[in-house]
Design a protein that fits this description.
- The chain is of the alpha/beta class.
- Helix content is 45%, strand content 21%.
- The protein has eight helices and eight strands; from the N terminus they run E-H-E-H-E-H-E-H-E-E-H-H-H-E-E-H.
- It has helices at 13-22, 40-55, 70-83, 98-111, 142-152, 158-165, 169-181, 196-202, and strands spanning 2-7, 27-35, 60-65, 88-92, 116-120, 127-131, 185-188, 191-194.
- Strands 3-2-1-4-5-6 form a six-stranded mixed β-sheet, with helices on both faces. Strands 7-8 form a two-stranded antiparallel sheet.
- The chain starts with a strand and ends in a 5-residue tail after the last helix.
- The model has no long low-confidence stretch (mean pLDDT 92).
Length: 207
Amino acid sequence: MTCLITPIGFDEKFIVRSFLRHGKSRIQEVLLVKPSAKNEKTEIAISNLMKLLSEASTPLQTLEINHDDFFSSVSRIMSWVKRSTHSDYLLNLSSGMRIVDLEILTAFLLLQIDAEVEVETETLQGLVTFRVKDLIPYQLEESDLKILRAIHLGENKVSEISRKMKLPLATTWRRVKELQTAGFVTQDADGLKLTQKGRIFANLNFS
């Protein structure tokens, strides 16, 4: 089950949309990260959200931070996550609290804990999703980039990539497996495919 973590600003619409999008069958608990300074609009938004979550029998927690102090805020969020018993996290970073959005994302990056991240556009017409693990640094070799580009161009079998790159088959297998572990490549019945992270690096141009 998943814990939805999100900032709370002056209204609750993005949080409500996220909760309805994923449903109470997935969202086990909601954590609101809010500035410690009192704000009437924020309190009204929390009250409205509590009514919805109460009807869905979904627990709601709030974590107050001094969002102007970036490092202490990140540390406080990290401490909460470390104490948490949840095995899966969904970060909705769509609110107007941009600093808090960054503090939540930074906490997960420093902990190297994976989570699904979603950001809605201000017009509510678009949704961007990615995973925290896609942002964790990984030192790619030149051969790795060539493998990613080969998959991007339609090569979906290790044997084909090995032949095209003129690499030993065993070496190609090893590099592909490492790229899978690092989250650049997936494999299904149709063969190898690039993840979002893989597509970004496959399109790199250093010239």
